[in-house]
Amino acid sequence: MENTFGNFLYNNQNTHRNVYADSRFDNSSSSDRTSNRQADNRDTHNPVADSNGADNKRSQSGRHFEQVLERNFREAFEAEFRQKQNHNTLDFLKQHWFKIGLVVALLFFILKKDITKNFISKEENIEKIGKKSNKLTIASNKTSEDTPLSIGGTLTTDGNKSVGTMPELDEAVKKNYLKRFAPVAISERRKFGVPASLILANAMRQSFAGQRGTTAKLNNHFGLPCTYDWAGATASSNGQCWRQYENAWVSFRDHSVFVTTGKFADLKRLTDKDYKAWAKGLQRLGYPSSNDNLANELIDIVEQYGLQQLDNVK
Fold first, then answer.
1. Rounded to whole angstroms, how far apart are CA atoms 314 and 56?
2. Can you name the residues that pair with 165 across neighbouring β-strands?
3. What pLDDT score does 117 carry?
4. Would the pLDDT of 289 be above 50?
5. CA angle 10–15–21, rounded 5-degree value
6. Alpha-carbon distances, residue 221 vs 9, 79, 246 (angstroms)
7. Model pLDDT for residues 158-214, shown as the tens digit of each residue
8. What's the pLDDT at 286?
9. One-character DSSP codes across the chain
10. Which of 145, 154, 180, 257 is most solvent-facing, going by the fewest CB within 10 Å?
11. What is the spatial distance between Cα 260 and Cα 199, in angstroms, rounded to a whole number?
């Protein structure tokens, strides 16, 4: 403030000197012209007129000085105001950075909580729609003499990678699982173009119809492990890192994104009814925890429970 106002006074003093000098110059010039006129024609000398001319010039010089003074004062005040505002803003941020950080973090968690509520609400709405609409019939073609579906030695009930088969589960458990998530699979098919039959078959295979440990604890229905580009929650089980979800609906959505991006992006050219091509594509491109028999396993599940009907739901 002192520097700015000091410059302002200095400039005004110079301005006043210049105006005063101009006034003296104008007065002296007026006097010389008056003397010359007096020498040329003494009979026409008019001292009153000369005095009025000098007064007018001094009045104009005074007004000019006032205008310059006002302009300089306004510019100095505006510059000082801007400088003070910037300084106050920086001081406020320095003094309250911790509180500001807490507010930002709080807003983030509130937003995240709202998103989670929306996810849960959407999942509940989809399940209600599925319960009200009793048009989907999940029936097994399996006979009592059929052997359990093979998992190709990649997954077991506890998540370990070892040779084994899908555990024996009650058919009612499997059918309830498929009926529960059929509306979710149909919704994902409409949005991402992945066959609903393929989605349900993969969920059934990876989660053991929701009975697998990582599914019950982490809501991970597709056996998706941690990857370098995964920014969500994670958890370790049996020495392996798994993706963790807030609810089942988020797991289904992440699976849809997973099989339509990255190295699986080429599968998007397939139709949402060609579950066989999708199954073979997942095996060929190396779906996590897959094996040489992945495609046949998925196709068998689709056809055993008639899941292909879901691909025709409008």
1. 93
2. 150
3. 53
4. yes
5. 130
6. 77, 63, 12
7. 333 332 356 788 899 999 999 999 999 999 999 999 999 999 999 999 999 999 988
8. 93
9. -HHHHHHHHHHHHHHHHHHHHHHHHHHHHHHHHHHHHHHH-GGG--HHHHHHHHHHHHHHHHHHHHHHHHHHHHHHHHHHHHHHHHHHHHHHHHHSHHHHHHHHHHHHHHHHHHHHHHHHHHHHHHHHHHHH-TT--------TTPPPPB-TTS--TTS--SS-BPPP--HHHHHHHHHHHHHHHHHHHHHH---HHHHHHHHHHHHTTTTSHHHHHH--SS--B--TT--S-EEEETTEEEE--SSHHHHHHHHHHHTTSGGGGGGGGS-TT-HHHHHHHHHHHT-TT--TTHHHHHHHHHHHTTGGGGGG--
10. 145
11. 12
* CA distance linking residue 20 with residue 213, whole number of Å: 95
Encode pLDDT of 219-248 as tens digits: 999 999 999 999 999 999 888 899 999 999
For residue 240, CA distances in Å to 171, 227, 246 come to: 30, 11, 19
The residue to which tokens 């006032």 are assigned: 66
What are residue 242's DSSP bridge partners? 225, 235
Q: 């024609």: which residue's tokens?
A: 41
